[in-house]
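go over my protein:
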Amino acid sequence: MAGKYTKSISASEVEGKLQQGIPLHILDVREDEEWESGHIPGAMHIPLGSIGQRHAELDKGIETIVVCRSGNRSGLACELLEELGCDVVNMTGGMLQWTGNVSYGK
């Protein structure tokens, strides 16, 4: 099942787009504790286990970059969200590869 999503982007590409001021829609699918320990500023938070119940919170017509710790859970989220009609991109390497700004807390 893992790896069947359509699109991917590296953490450095996401950071570059944000530095250029390009507006991005970012979804972090990590657990609450992981999110609170540091996330990309402006990202939306829906833990992977809640995607099935909360996917309607996403705008299906807007490309959304999906983030987790290493890129595995976000890949699973991308598969599920694509099946639900969402336009998603997996951020490969996840937060382990992120060197940009980080926000903390809820």
About this structure: The domain at 8-97 is CATH 3.40.250.10 (Oxidized Rhodanese; domain 1).
